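Fig. S4 source data, part A: sequence.
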Amino acid sequence: MKGPFYAQDSRIQAWVQAGIRDPDLREAYERARTDHSGMLTAGIMDKYVFEVMREAA
C-alpha cells in the first residue's frame, strides 16, 4: 500500500487483533482505490478493512 502507514497506529493494531488476512487486506485496498482518488491512509482504509472482514465472517 502507498501512504503513511505506521504499525503503532491503533487502527492497524485493531486490524491485526481482528485477524486481518492478506487476501482481505488486498480486497480492502482495491475497494479503497476504486472509491478514493487521493492518498490512502489508515483512517481511510479502516472503513474498507472492516467492511471486507465483516463480509468474510
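Fig. S4 source data, part B ends here. The chain is about 65% helix and 0% strand.
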